[in-house]
Amino acid sequence: MSEAAVITSGPISGNPSPTGSVLIIDDEAEIRESLQTLLEMEGFAVETAVSGEEGLMQMADRPFDLVLLDLTLPGRDGMDILSEIRSHDSRLPVIMITAYGTVENAVRAMQSGAANFVQKPWDNEKLLADVRAAVGWRRAEEENVQLKRALKQRYNFENIVGKSEPMLKIFDLVAQVANSRSTVLLQGESGTGKEVIAKAIHLNSPRRDKPFVPVNTGSMPTDLLESTLFGHVKGAFTSAIASKKGLFEVADKGTLFLDEIATMGLETQAKILRVLQDRRFMHLGGISEIQVDVRIIAATNIDLRHMVREGRFREDLFYRLNVITVELPPLRQRKEDIPLLVEFFLKKYAEENGRQAPRITPEALRPLMAYSWPGNVRELENVIERAVVLSSGLEISMDLLPDSMMGRGSSLTLHDPPSDASLFEIIGDVERRVIVDMLERCNWNQTEAAERFHVPLSTLNQKIRRHNIEIKKKGRIA
Description:
single chain; alpha/beta; five-stranded parallel β-sheet; 14 strands
């Protein structure tokens, strides 16, 4: 086992019970005793308090995984105590218990951050299921915090989330290659986080204080790409009204990240090869050589060896790029990382929207774990961002997940065509909906959609224009 794997093993410190620790706050002795007996028989460590103030003092002395809180307490009521608990530890799950289980009270409690709402008399099995789910989520959050702290101490990894064996191997590999100046080739499906890994390599390298310059080589035509990479002199072409530095110069002493390098034309590949060999290049239209010290990290979701065999990628450039290869696993092969990623994105988009981070219900997490994630981490990020934006409370439930993921239908559902529709009209309608569905899955990234369809970008763009599909603004990329 790698050294990094050790950081996730063992029980969470501060919890006296392997099952979890629960604080019961209720002024009725019979209720406290019944709950304590029920939970202790299930292996939970239980403490009790007769008032909100006493409960708050106990929480100040020791950590708990869950609080069972009565809504009606002497002195300060349960809603007031809930508010204070949330202000001190917004992630501590609280289940409200009351004999006055009105809809209004349930809504108030949930909007104020309660994890659940239970009415007296309760169903033992349902209550235990709710307690297990809340404690399990709390433990996962604590594990995530410890994992991030350990990764930060060992690797300086800020935004890489994972505890699965494939990701732990990548962490170790990134740490090993970061200090070298060797070229790195990142291979993996779209949305697996290749740019995030490239940034981690840069930030852990001696070049960390110099620029990290990403460029998507598949998003621009050849002439514009070469001008962007190498710069040009005034008058090099019609629109070159002034000289311009290229990204190789901007990235001098730093790192240049060439994403989607498989889309690069053979002529541009030859120029990239020369920079890798000689560390020299010329501006377009220029006559003087420019020397740079740039580390290249390239990324692709296409099999470059296959492209070499077909003559679409230079063999000499492939071997220059393929000094160190990092294979990024698809999300479906590391599903144990999904809860950690969900938590990371919940916090990220809550902060961006200026609100408290919600929690996801166990019922909503189950379909996320079962889904195949063709769009990988990027698709998961988009799903969670959507859920955060659409949520009105502090809980992400199943109704905030996309219909297609929940089996509630899809934009591709066939319907009876009009009786006067021709075969070509029906085929065109289906093709349009297939393209729109793929674009939505790819966050409206046409290049990625073309790659998934295995067609040239120009072919996809022609079909987009033919079907009059409006391209929406791209979202954030994981």
